[in-house]
Amino acid sequence: MRCSGKTAAVAKVRGLALFPDGRTLVSAAGDIRFWDLNSRRQISVFKPRTTGFYGCSVSPDGRRLAIGAADRRITIWDRASAQEVATLQGHKGRVDDVSFLADGNTLVSVGVDQLRVWRAASFEEIALAEKPKPRRE
Fold first, then answer.
1. 137 lies in a domain?
2. d(CA 50, CA 8)
3. What is the pTM of this model?
4. What pLDDT was estimated at residue 130?
């Protein structure tokens, strides 16, 4: 299936997430784009800051969107208001992917050398796993 947008140039897509309605898709690349799968058209596009965007995830209830980025931050957006509700920081490198767990209140993020677990609504970090450092003998 091909979707058409308002511009011909589209950056390499690095993340996709489907909203629970089954018809709205979000893509992460140089910007964030929303697509209507029924009409195969782009609904909207936004670029909240100058960085590359990587993984994205929609909460199970469809109310929140989490986006990982090259600037080492994760942003959480409220879909209804289109407002940023949280910025999560702590990764040492870009955030390659994010995923809401089924409970809708836990977000997992992964970067080059770390996996982090965050708890909503405060999005306090509740766990950290770092890639083991090579042993020197």
1. no
2. 20
3. 0.80
4. 62
